[in-house]
Write a structure and sequence with these properties.
By secondary structure, this protein is an all-alpha fold. The chain has two domains: about 30 residues; about 45 residues. It contains two helices and no strands. It is elongated and about 75 Å long.
């Protein structure tokens, strides 16, 4: 009886962990472990994160430049 409860908790924990990873954009949890597509998905995720960081850095730089120009114009 206890082993059944333990197995149920392990299954629930595994599902919650996978759902959490999926909510954090980790789509590799949708593939079976050892899947040949897993490396491809992980490469796409790394590319996506790099692109998002680059876009955010560019937006921050653009905002800083606008603020600097506004300060110069007001002086």
């Amino acid at each position: 009886m206890i082993s059944h409860v333990t197995n149920a908790f392990d299954t629930i924990d595994s599902g919650i962990t996978a759902a959490s990873r999926l909510l954090h954009s980790d789509i590799s949890v949708l593939l079976k472990s050892g899947s040949s597509g897993k490396g491809f998905v992980e490469a796409i995720q790394r590319m996506w994160r790099s692109g998002r960081r680059t876009f955010q850095d560019a937006a921050t730089t653009g905002t800083a430049n606008k603020d600097a120009i506004r300060c110069d114009a007001g002086a």
